[in-house]
Amino acid sequence: MNKINVLDQGYVRLVDVMGSDLTPVNAARVSFDKESTEMTDKDVRLLKFLAREGHSSPFRHAFLQFEVYAPLMVARQWHKYRIGSTHLEEQDSYDALEAWNESSRRYITEDPTFYIPAFNEWRGKPENSKQGSGDYVPFDVGNPATKRLMESVDKQLADYEWALENGICAEQARLFLPAYGMYVRWYWSTSLQGVCHFLSQRLKHDAQKEIQDYAKAVLELTKEKFPASLSELIK
Question: What processes in GO biological process is this protein linked to (predicted)?
């Protein structure tokens, strides 16, 4: 399995992997000029020790590359939890351990797709918090919410197509598109530690449900390649 569908039209695809559970083991053992060629109970105990004591650098020697297709509201939340940033006074910040390349509507005009929750997927406001969501709203609210969103998307999509047909450049025509529900596609390459940092934040019960669904997909795809490491790093 290298691809898991998420929401109505989204997905997470594991594109490439460098390393295995032995990678952090051998990275930690290099100080003693030791190397394992197959996983043993001793190696598992070492992984447990590294995870328990917060020795994260060995887990940065294994890498994963994902392709993600998700609504913009998910993409922007996801982007906040990248790690390894280095901030320089005279340069923009950059990520030394991660890479993120996203499709841009400055250059492409492929048919836009949008996330539209079904009538039974709309959630109400939480009772005791300023953010997040609560229980699902009743049918007499959810059903018109879906219809209103569909009508809004259709109207703005027609305006976008009108702009393109009348010679307006793609980078300005995209202003007509509804933003937060529009699907975007990106490549995310990061270390095993980077994956686990993202999962530790986005699998929490109070994380937005949509990004939780994507985090669960990332977890399942990563678990197939790094089962021992994931069992220790993600409790």
Answer: dTMP biosynthetic process; methylation
Tokens representing residue 98 in the block: 């991660």
Q: Which of 52, 76, 106, 202 is catalytic?
A: 202
Contact 158, 180 (CB under 8 A): no
Residues in the chain: 235
Give 93-129 pLDDT, tens digit per residue.
444 467 777 777 766 667 889 999 999 999 988 777 6
Domain limits for position 71: 3-110+184-233
Contact 154, 146 (CB under 8 A): no
Per-10-residue mean pLDDT for the chain, 235 residues long?
94 96 91 76 90 88 96 88 46 54 70 90 81 86 95 95 93 89 93 91 89 96 95 86
Does residue 204 sit in the same domain as residue 170? Answer: no
Could you confirm whether 202 is annotated as catalytic? yes
Does 105 share its domain with 126?
no
State whether 35 and 103 are in the same domain: yes
Contact 176, 160 (CB under 8 A): yes
Question: 103 and 12 in one domain?
Answer: yes
Q: Which residue has the tokens 């703005």?
A: 156
pLDDT, position 109: 64
Residues 127, 209 within the same domain: no
Tokens of 128: 């005791």
Map residue 17 onto helix, strand or coil.
strand
